[in-house]
Amino acid sequence: MIIELMIRNGRVVDPSTGINGLYDIAVAEGKIISIAPPGSIPDEGFAKVLDASGCLVTPGLIDLHTHVYEGVHEMGVRPDVVGIDQGVTTVADAGSAGAGNFDDFISRSVKNNATEVLAWLNIAKPGLAEGRSELADLKNLNAHEALACIERHPEVICGIKARMSGSVVKGNGIFPLSVAKAVAREAQLPVMVHIGNAPPELGGVLDLLEEGDVVTHAFHGKAGGILGPEGRLIPQAEEALDRGVRFDVGHGSSSFSFQTMKQAQQLGITPYSISTDLYLENWLRGPVYSLTMTMSKFLLLGYPIEQIIQWTTQAPAQILRRANTIGTLREGTIADISILQIVEQPVEFVDSERQVLSGSKLIQAQYIIKSGEIYPCKQ
Ligand SMILES: [Zn+2]
Predict the structure, then answer these.
(1) What is the pLDDT of residue 43?
(2) CA of 31 to the centre of ligand 1 (A)
(3) By CB atoms within 10 Å of each CB, which of 27, 41, 297, 368 scores lowest?
(4) CA 8 to ligand 1 centroid distance, Å
(5) Residue 183 Cα, ligand 1 centroid: separation in angstroms?
(6) Please, what is the average pLDDT of the chain?
């Protein structure tokens, strides 16, 4: 077998296998064939050698919450722009498309990219393509069409998205979520719930969620979030966590607060996963910019890099139920690998409340290997 690529001398960090140290990685036929101490794989017959000295070599990063459907005007970004260009091998679109336009989403956004694109199917038929109040009109809810769509695209659809905040559902309360849950149960998939301003009240939303379901925007800084007035976790949030409901970051333009995150940190509450909620505006003008920028904010907040890598590789792979194939560097799996560098430089980090924190470390993506192919990243 000809080794197509050798990645030499990097610090390999793979939380899924517990590997953390200097290793070489050999890739052939698009798969990882060996992870071994530096220099121990014979130095012959490689098509390419990549020197990763001083870099972190991790499973390909996974962004659980993005908007990559260009059918949604002024929002959808091309998948590769927030994917391989930024060191991310897999992105999940979070409800940009619903059953009414999912086939268009497949042809525009899933095909013809180097980045792997998965999706949370919006329980509302038009997704976000007809505006941001997609659950205000109950005619947009059709469980049969959603189930038929899931059946047509099992390789892409990883769950159901329901956006449960006042401007989205208007007077419909938690009813749209109960429909999303019914569809998800039938299809044996998780639900991702967007939370924001009430109504509906967060407690009622959380009460409907089960093990494996995801709350995105969990650490927003608006009123009515997971923390009550005394700064304690509201009881329904505590119960949801005990049931195995997963709290995801979903940074976005208005959904991540340093203050909320620090308060949660003091209570011992951590995210299950870090995602960006990247779309055109917050990619171009911030405050999100990229997954690695979002990860850098967690480095600033004091979380260890190994933990941050777990939250962006193994954890989202588990949520997406693809932990055997992505988010891991096990020998024999697809060669999806991120090569990152922690750069020392002064940097101002901004959250969605426009609070600024100064830091000195930035995680930057240098190269990405997607299915064995190397791509340089763009900063
Ligand atoms: Zn979103």
Answers:
(1) 67
(2) 32
(3) 41
(4) 37
(5) 20
(6) 96
Mean pLDDT within 35-57 = 89
Q: Mapping DSSP to helix (H, G, I), strand (E, B) and coil, where does residue 205 land?
A: helix
pLDDT of amino acid 362: 98
Assessment of whether the complete model's pTM goes beyond 0.85: yes
Closest of 104, 97, 103 to residue 123, by C-alpha: 97
Q: Is 15 helix (H, G, I), strand (E, B) or coil?
A: coil
Q: Is the pLDDT of residue 20 over 70?
A: yes
For position 126, what pLDDT does the model report?
96
Q: How far is the CA of 58 from the centre of ligand 1 (A)?
A: 25
* CATH 3.20.20.140 location in the chain: 61-319
Distance of CA 144 from the midpoint of ligand 1 (Å): 24
Q: Residue 291 in 3-state DSSP?
A: helix
61-319 CATH pick, 3.40.190.10, 3.30.70.1230, 3.20.20.140, 3.90.1150.10: 3.20.20.140
Grouping H, G, I as helix, E, B as strand and the rest as coil, residue 101 is: coil
Ligand 1 geometric centre to CA of 228 (Å): 24
Ligand 1 center–CA 94 separation, angstroms: 6
Kindly give the distance from the C-alpha atom of residue 275 to the centroid of ligand 1, in angstroms, as a whole number.
10
Q: Where in the chain is the domain with CATH 2.30.40.10?
A: 5-58+335-348+355-376
Helix (H, G, I), strand (E, B) or coil at 355: coil
Whole-number CA gyration radius for the chain: 20
Ligand 1 centroid to residue 277 C-alpha, Å: 5
Q: What is the CATH number of domain 5-58+335-348+355-376?
A: 2.30.40.10
Positive or negative, the CA dihedral 234, 237, 241, 246 is negative
Assign 41 a pLDDT band (cuts: 50, 70, 90).
confident
Please give the distance, rounded to the nearest whole angstrom, from the Cα atom of residue 186 to the centre of ligand 1.
24
CA 26 to ligand 1 center in whole angstroms = 36
Residue with tokens 């401007």: 167
